[in-house]
Please model this.
Amino acid sequence: MTGAKTRPLTIRLPARAVERLHERANIVKGRPTAIARELILAGLINGHSLEQAERMLTIERRLAAIDQQVQAVSQKSDAHAASTGRLLAMFEALLQVLTGEHSKDHSHLE
Model:
């Protein structure tokens, strides 16, 4: 349905149903109209297992792509953390040499 022309539709719901839509929207940080739209579309395709399967496959592909991106970001983050740790160790060693702390700490060894 992506890219298909849409038209507005107005519906009347009991107050409690509207409240539940708002509650669901708050949980997923979305809008009540988007939640209602998804519920209606899901209800319309419920009887058509092929359409529902295609939709689930699309969702699964999107989730797999997002998972790959998250893993790549995580690996880069780990690499950056390791590099930062090495740089910090080198900086601290340089700072010790420049401030003479290194020679003071090891003067008893000479």
The radius of gyration is 29 Å. The chain has a mean pLDDT of 85.
